[in-house]
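Bug #77: duplicate submission created two jobs. Keeping one. Sequence:
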Amino acid sequence: PVPPQSQRSRRVSKGKSPGRRGECLKPIDLSLLDSPLDFMAEDHLRTRKICALIDQVAASNGTDHTDVKEVMFFLRDEFPLQMQDKTIDLFPMMHSRCKVSDEIDSILDRLQFDHGEELETQPKLTAVLENLLAGQAEPRPKDWALLVSFAKHVRRHLIVENAILLPIARARLSASDLGQLRDTMQQRRQLNKVVE
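Kept job's structure:
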């Protein structure tokens, strides 16, 4: 089943202000899916903002529940979609479209491995934050350390994706490839034919 983020994102795209570039205070405006690589670049900006918020939440031991909710929403509803966009759609497409001289295969393999590790960690982090908000259990020091480590790990792969992956994707993917990428990203969010 598609996470409830798709419903919240649909509301954002139909009327609420998505926030200007650089603010990254809300999920990405889904009208940007018309240009899937631009959408991914914006998603990366938001992810960096969330990583900073994760550090802040860990440093304060989760005393600001508004911040905790924002991090939890991202981890539960946005992050899995972002990972699927890449591992299911973008990476295989680039494996088949890039030239040997691009030397992209080892980078994609490494990113695929990193994303797999992050997706394994994500449910643990979400559970920690859910328990905190429900008042069921205070996170232990190792829980906060895991959150900080997760944010650091994510930042590291974002550097590679922004500096290497997206520029090569812009050079190698055809208009047809981008249309296919757009369609699958929209379908993943149950928004095919919905975003104007």
